[in-house]
Specification:
By secondary structure, the protein is an alpha+beta fold. The protein is 47% helix and 20% strand. It is built from 13 helices and 12 strands.
């Protein structure tokens, strides 16, 4: 490849440079009136004039700088980078010379406005927009260039302020989301761990002075299961909480039956006391990719609610079922408990600290957590219920 070069300068001869200097001085009053910082050069990039605005912007007097190279004002690393970029675009070898500055103007035959960094006399750097305009003689030969310089310092400061504001707003949103997640997990820990603790108490209460060794052994075996599940749940919650700095919730392949078995074991004491039975049908959809702590929390809260709000008039039965509908995996949890008056409470059902039955252990947290977790994973939850007949919660997974 050949080196790119500037066109031949005006062959007008020896007085060419001086004539351009005089021409610039002749027009200087007009240029100053414009308020724009303007420099003129020879085709090779030698300064022929700076107007007053350019003197103020760069800190140099025109009389001290006419006849010196334009490149003096430019940052060398930036010039080298632009030469490499221009070479990639044109396919022509480019050196970090004045040709790089004017190449776009020469190629387009019109003023170009790339951003550059210029160096002032005091060594400070200023961001500018540079419009380079080719100047031609009456014979249409290139006689030089005019550079119109726009100081972008104010715009850069405004951009920095807006960027800082945007960063601050983004950080604020991240902190709010982080606080929401921490608050959610605080509720999970305080609410979901209460069930196993209550279950331990329920198992212990099954023993009395008349209990035999076999009874103690049976309860002790059940307590071991509760303890094991409680420890697993604590570890999983802590691991998930540590991972909350990540934008995505970790998912894994889970068997519904394994989650239900674990939750039933954790609530076995309460199920015995309530004489409730739990049935399931996961044949149509036995697996799911999901957050394990979330799914365990959903199962535990739905089962806990079904036990807590069972009917005093019949034996409690709770049925878990998974199925496919409209290409979506769904889970239904049905009970024959007290039911909910949806006409009165339907719009408040999933609100935080909303309760709909006179129950001393009601906290109004479980359904709120379920909805929050389901929606966080892109799903939805709906409910059908009749007072004194029972309730069915249906979760559509994403």
């Amino acid at each position: 490849m050949q080196n790119a070069s500037l066109p031949e300068k005006d062959p007008a001869g020896e007085n060419s440079f001086l004539s351009r200097v005089e021409a610039f001085r002749f027009q200087e009053s007009v240029l100053n009136a414009s308020g724009l910082a303007i420099m003129s050069t020879t085709p090779e990039g030698i300064i022929t004039g700076l107007n007053t605005a350019a003197e103020k912007l760069l800190g140099y007097l025109a009389k001290d700088y006419v006849g010196k190279p334009w490149l003096h004002f430019h940052d060398s690393p930036e010039l080298l980078k632009r030469a490499e970029e221009a070479q990639q675009i044109s396919g022509t070898k480019m050196e970090p010379t004045f040709a790089v500055i004017v190449s776009e103007a020469l190629r387009q035959k019109s003023g170009a406005h790339p951003d550059w960094t210029l160096i002032r006399k005091d060594g400070s750097r200023i961001p500018v927009s540079l419009a380079v305009i080719p100047l031609h003689s009456e014979d249409d030969l290139l006689s030089g260039f005019a550079g119109i310089i726009t100081d972008l310092t104010g715009q850069q400061m405004l951009k920095n302020i807006l960027d800082s504001k945007s960063d601050l707003e983004s950080l604020t949103l991240q902190l709010r989301e982080q606080n929401r997640r921490l608050d959610e997990f605080a509720h999970i820990i305080s609410h979901n761990l209460r069930a196993p603790v209550n279950n331990i108490q329920a198992l212990i209460n099954l023993l009395n002075n008349n209990s035999e060794i076999a009874d103690y052994k049976l309860i002790f075996d059940k307590l071991k299961n509760v303890s094991k599940n409680l420890n697993e749940t604590m570890n999983e919650l802590m691991d998930t909480l540590k991972a909350k700095t990540e934008p995505q919730v970790d998912v894994t392949e889970i068997r519904f039956k394994e989650v239900l078995d674990k939750v039933v074991q954790s609530l076995e004491g309460e199920l015995i006391v309530a004489q409730a039975s739990v049935t399931f049908d996961f044949n149509e959809a036995p697996l799911i990719l999901y957050s394990k702590p979330y799914l365990e929390s959903i199962f535990q809260n739905l089962l806990t609610n079904a036990i807590k709000y069972r009917s005093p008039h019949r034996t409690a039965t709770i049925h878990f079922k998974t199925f496919m509908r409209d290409n979506h995996l769904e889970l239904s949890v049905s009970d024959n408990g007290q039911g909910i008056d949806l006409d009165r409470f339907g719009d408040k059902l999933f609100g935080l600290h909303k309760t709909f039955h006179e129950h001393q252990e009601a906290r109004g947290v479980g359904l709120f957590l379920i909805k929050t977790q389901v929606e966080a994973m892109g799903g939805s939850i709906s409910v059908k219920s009749e007072v004194d007949k029972g309730t069915t919660f249906t979760i559509r997974f994403n």
